[in-house]
Amino acid sequence: MNVLFEAQNITKQFANHKALDEVSISVPGQSIFGLLGPNGAGKTTLIRIINQITAPDNGRLFFCGEKLQSRHIEKIGYLPEERGLYKKMKVGEQALYLARLKGLSKADALKKLREWFEKFEIQAWWNKKVEELSKGMQQKVQFIVTIIHEPELLIFDEPFSGFDPINVNLLKDEILRIKENGGTIIFSTHNMASVEELCDHIALIDKSKKILEGRVKDIKKEYKSNTYEINYTNRQKDLIEILSNNFKIIEQAKDEDTLSAKIRIMNGKNQNDLLRELLPYVSIHSFNEILPTMNDIFISKVRENE
Amino acid sequence: MNKIILIIKREYLTRVKKRSFIIMTILGPILMAALFIVPVYIAELEGETKLVGIIDETGLFYDKFRSTENIKFITLDSDLETAKQNITNEDLYAILYIPKTELSVPQSGMLYSAKQPNIVVKGYIKNIMRKEVEALKLSASGVDPDILKSIKTNINLFTIKMSEGGEEEKSSTELSMAVGFICGILIYIFIFMYGALVMRGVIEEKTNRIVEVIVSSVKPFQLMMGKIVGVAMVGLTQFALWVIFTLIIVSTFMSFFSDEISSYQSSQLKIHNEMLPVGVNVNGGEIPSENIQNTLEGGDINESVISIFESIQSINFEVVILSFLFFFIGGYFLYGALFAAIGSAVDSETDTQQFMLPITVPLILSIVLSQFIMNNPDGPAAFWLSIFPLTSPVIMMIRIPFGVPYTDLYLSIVLMILGFLGATWLAGKIYRTGILMYGKKINYKELWKWITYKN
């Protein structure tokens, strides 16, 4: 897979703390890359370095195989977490200004803005002042000006904050469509559900260091604990009496007519061995492997790092 | 470069289109013009003649009061009591009663009036009485008033500056002071008004949280410079419009009222001349008495007019105008950068106080010391303050009309440019870090850290 963006051994020292310590990430093209980590881990610093807002003390950055330089700014779109617009300026005027700062010509910028305003059904806002719009409306305008110059790399820092669920879906669709059309997205968020939904790859940064990176699927597989959940009915024996010590019951629960349990498989046994031991005694309604959520992985990795 | 022009354009257009800018641009000249027009207009209004009745028991003064445009004197035949009763019937503004005294020369009078008498009327009456009494006393001691008049002398002290090449030119200290002070004050106002505008612009970008969006497209330094230049152009536009509008309003007014004004002035002059035999000066010197004396002494007036023109020529206006433009713009840029740095370091305007102080002190000091500098335009204090970049915009402009050695001027200009570069470099460092810093109380130690950051 071709790599669109790569950071190697990035170190950034502020006066009294190290924001990034030898962090390397590699973002494949046409994918969504989740940049995760607790507050103050160094994500924003890394994002600012990618945007050339601040420079690293050490380390190298590559964009499309070239050394990252200022002309790449126009190929990157950035929606910062701290975002806003000039309140007294008219929406259209402002969108045009921001689009032109990204290097679009006036005619191009106007044409594209009109298309996007139509798509988001916000043409009527063109001549309104920003302060007349609600926060969600402002966010929409902000999203448009971030992607208006069709950058190869998009960086979204908490893009969904301030949106209602309908607009969150609108945005998710747009982000997925950008990926379909060949775009690459770095996506920083604390919302693990949206990470599972959108991201192909993630990197986890904690205490200025990268502690995890890889494909979401691979990571999940790696961190699965061989735990299965069964729903069953059983009139004779308790599970503890049935199962050998190759299996550990983590949790048991009782519903109105079925019972359920979470069982971890140990000692190199597999799920078929478990079924084999269960079948003579219980009738099984469902049988699922429990994969760890990104939330679980996040929490356990960060705890481990303490 | 293209982007910095975009930024300048936005900074300029959004401000120029603001309602407050338009209102200030229109109001400014009206207020300025009012300064010229209102006094003239009020004088016109006061034109109604006040009737003052005189009861002079001494018989010494009644024919000495000559009516003017504004005050008419009539001698009353009735006694004081009836006159007092008739004051309103006879439409009298006031009654002047000079009682007989035992002294050879009366020294007091009483002015009865329905309302508190006008200070001009009071001054006029007192003046005439004083002159008359003085004349009486002089003649009593045997001095002829004509002799006294002949010994009154007006001294014209021409100041002539000699250049090293031996050329001589007449100069006027007063004129140099006026030119220098006006230039200094203009620079001071411009720096403060528009420097603060830069600072507010930076704070606005910070509190709106738009700054990070923008610095992902342009360098922070470009954003800062774009703002400073854009605001400078707003300021220059406003100043230019003010000058033009003020001139238009004043000249329209002058041409409209010119007849009345000139007649007003000539009537004043006439009074002076009429009164001169007893040496009376109406309205306490509203029109300089030298003029009249010059008229009397004949021919001298030409000389003094010529001397004023010669002193105007003695000021090197090319140097004044060019240095004014330089220090006007240079000073603004120097301070503008510092104001931008302050704006970037704080979260709201209320936090700016502690950082404003070191910047405003040199500026205010320049104005406070201006009188001292005008008295000693070549002293060591004037020299050092006029080359130090934070004070030179104001102090150098005060010195220049007095004539400044070119070495001083060039030194000041070079240091100004260096100061500007240094200030922008420093401000750029603070700005770059400051605009992305929220919710932190910043002190000088913190600023120093920002300055010493790499990149």
Task: Describe the 3D structure.
The complex is a heterodimer of chains A (306) and B (455). Chain A has 306 residues and is α/β, with parallel strands linked by helices. Chain A has ten helices and 14 strands. In chain A, strand 12 (247-254) and strand 13 form a beta hairpin. The two termini of chain A are 34 Å apart. By secondary structure, chain B is of the alpha/beta class. Chain B has 17 helices and six strands. Chain B has helices at residues 2-16, 19-45, 80-85, 119-140, 145-151, 173-207, 211-215, 220-275, 289-297, 300-314, 317-345, 353-368, 370-375, 380-387, 392-399, 406-434, 444-452, and strands at residues 50-56, 71-75, 94-98, 110-113, 159-162, 168-171. Chain B is elongated. Chain B starts with a helix and ends with a helix. The A-B interface holds A 14-15, 48, 51, 53-55, 57, 70, 73, 76, 78-80, 82-89, 97-98, 100-102, 142, 145-146 and B 3, 6-7, 10, 14, 18, 204-205, 208-210, 212-220, 436, 438, 449, 453-455.
Count of discrete alpha- or pi-helical segments spanning 4 or more residues of chain B: 17
The arrangement of helices and strands of chain A along the chain is EEEHEEEHHHEHEHEEHEHEEHEH
Count of domains of chain A? 2
Shape of chain B: elongated
Radius of gyration over C-alpha positions of chain B, nearest whole angstrom:
31 Å
Order of helices and strands of chain B: HHEEHEEHHEEHHHHHHHHHHHH
Q: What distance lies between the first and last C-alpha atoms of chain A, to the nearest angstrom? A: 34 Å
Measured between the Cα atoms of the first and last residue of chain B, the distance is 21 Å
Radius of gyration of chain A, in Å, reads 24 Å
Residue-averaged pLDDT of chain A: 89
Strand content of chain B: 5-15%
Helical content of chain B (DSSP H or I, runs of 4+): 55-70%
